[in-house]
Design brief:
alpha/beta, 539 residues, 14 helices, four-stranded mixed beta sheet
């Protein structure tokens, strides 16, 4: 795809369900709109593709919207923004309808959609496509965007957002972004009247993660540098069950395995979840992850087991064909034996502050999906609410962009990327070393169970790393690895600062120094404000 100097009506950074739903929604409202999508890797290579479980939606007469809302609020441990929860839950049936219209083939039972159940849900309400729902959604949306006439730029890393220069050194609206073409190694400018960040989360800030390699917090970092507030970065969700195998690269074992009767076992084969929560294996993810972490520390074991082999083999292979096939590659047959599992960083519940149309603190800049903080997830995301949020807020953002597209003023000329004083690096080992060090101390000091001493140690380490990375960034030509490391160090700093600021244990944030809930009422979300905070507010 050839770049042009003409501004786009819409520039979407990210190509998962969130970004593509915005792009397709804008084009549906205005087929003549000029739309560009930047994908960090191949168009389909993002977190959406790897989402196994499904999408939560009230579609059964025995279920209710109020029940879904209650389950979400309960999982969020008291700090969900209730209007956000209600808006997303109420938008679920329309989101499912739109996906079916786009060609997503969900599983059926008889003439109705098959609904499964996951931890934290009081009813069966998870719409799914076997155990590879994200892949089905991503492929359908990818086919649509490729046929839409949008300009698609694969293998492009966002470097930074561009804001309009105003008198007296002030910054105005977002007017585009600089992005590195990983194939030619050059940074290019993309002018746009509206920019949407849909880059996913930051789980790769940790040593062990279920996320693809590209989940390095890019959108959160560039938005922070551009002047946007971020919220609730201390709430990093660790998926309780990733496959424990040296070659599995933290392959995720879906929540639905426990939803369909899978049991968590100690190495000696005894169950333990009933000792930690009356809901047993169906407790919310934060409780299950901490229980597994506690058992591993008490027993001195490297992993626990998840066993669904008591179910008929035909049931297992029908419901979990992808997981079954993947485990067989490593010599593990889940129809006959338990799966070795460990927790791994999975989902970023905090992010860039937005309203329910995805609008951020910076005019004409939107954030949708895992990169954002709408208030839906609170202190802990309820299973299968993530794709739902991406779709519902993505549709709202598309409507807002389309409604205002004709009123956005012309974009001023954007200067090309300046590489006058930089050279090619001859010390790439520095990037690799810092990358490894950052992710290791985040895992050790800012993981499932925290303490003030560990967090202070992490804060000191990340400051030293950030200073070194910033000096390196200013001296050498940018590379994909350097951009990701720069963003990860920014996100790590935001997580640590947020965790130190929360002097209680709530949801996904558990600290041994403050093991109970704070008595402050109402409980507060953690909001960090950058030095260049914009005047516009979204709360």
């Amino acid at each position: 795809m050839t770049r042009t100097a003409d501004p786009y009506d819409l520039l979407v950074v990210g190509s998962g369900a969130a970004g593509l739903s915005v792009a397709l929604g804008v084009l549906a409202n205005n087929p003549k709109a000029r739309v560009a999508v930047l994908a960090k890797n191949d168009l389909s290579e993002g977190s959406t593709k790897y989402a196994q479980g499904g999408i939560a939606a009230v579609l059964d007469a025995a279920d209710s919207t109020e029940s879904h809302i209650a389950d979400t609020l309960n999982a969020g441990a008291g700090i969900c923004v209730e209007p956000a929860v209600r808006a997303v839950v109420e938008g679920a049936p329309e989101a499912i309808r739109w996906l079916i219209e786009c060609g997503v083939l969900f599983d059926h039972e008889g003439g109705d959609l098959h609904l499964t159940r996951e931890g934290g849900h009081s009813h069966r309400r998870i719409v799914h496509s076997a155990d590879a729902t994200g892949k089905a959604v991503e492929l359908a949306l990818e086919a649509r965007i490729r046929a839409s006439g949008a300009d698609l730029f694969e293998h492009h890393n966002a470097v930074d957002l561009i804001r309009e220069k105003l008198p007296q050194g002030r910054q105005g609206r977002c007017i585009g972004a600089y992005a590195l073409d990983r194939r030619d190694g050059r940074v290019h400018r993309f002018a746009a009247r509206n920019v949407v960040l849909a880059t996913g989360g930051a789980a790769r800030v940790y040593l062990y993660s279920t996320n693809p390699d590209g989940s390095t917090g890019d959108g959160i970092a560039v938005a922070w540098r551009a002047g946007c507030r971020v919220g609730n970065m201390e709430f990093c969700q660790f998926h309780p069950t990733s496959l424990y195998h040296p070659k599995a690269k933290s392959f995720l074992i879906s929540e639905a395995v426990r939803g369909e009767g899978g049991l968590l076992l100690r190495p000696d084969g005894t169950r333990f979840m009933d000792e930690y929560d009356p809901r047993g294996e169906l407790a919310p993810r934060d409780i299950v992850a901490r229980a597994i972490d506690d058992v591993m520390k008490r027993e001195g074991c490297d992993h626990v087991y998840l066993d669904i082999s008591h179910k008929p083999a035909e049931f297992i292979t029908a419901h979990f064909p992808t997981i079954h096939a993947e485990c067989l590659k490593f010599g593990i047959d889940m129809t006959r034996e338990p799966l070795p599992v460990v927790p791994a960083a999975h989902y970023t519940c905090g992010g860039v502050l937005t309203d329910l149309a995805g609008r951020t603190d910076v005019e004409n800049l939107y954030a949708v999906g895992e990169v954002s903080f709408t208030g839906l997830h609170g202190a802990n995301r309820l299973a299968s609410n993530s794709l739902l949020e991406a779709l519902v807020v993505g549709a709202a953002a598309a409507r807002d962009i389309a409604a205002h597209m004709g009123t956005v003023p012309a974009i001023p000329e954007i200067a090309p990327w300046d590489e006058t004083w930089v050279t090619d690096s001859d010390e790439e080992v520095v990037v690799a070393h810092n990358w490894d060090e950052l992710r290791r101390f985040m895992w050790d000091y800012v993981g499932i169970v925290r303490s003030t001493k560990r967090l202070e140690r992490a804060r000191h380490r990340v400051k030293l790393l950030k200073d070194e990375i910033d000096e390196y960034y200013g001296s050498f030509r940018v590379t994909s690895d350097l951009l990701e490391l720069r963003n990860l160090s920014t996100v790590a700093d935001l997580i640590i600062r947020s965790a130190l600021g929360r002097r209680e244990s709530r949801g996904l944030h558990f600290t041994i120094d403050f093991p109970t809930l704070d008595s402050i009422a109402p409980p507060q979300n953690t909001i960090l404000v950058p030095k260049n905070f914009s005047i516009r507010r979204v709360d």
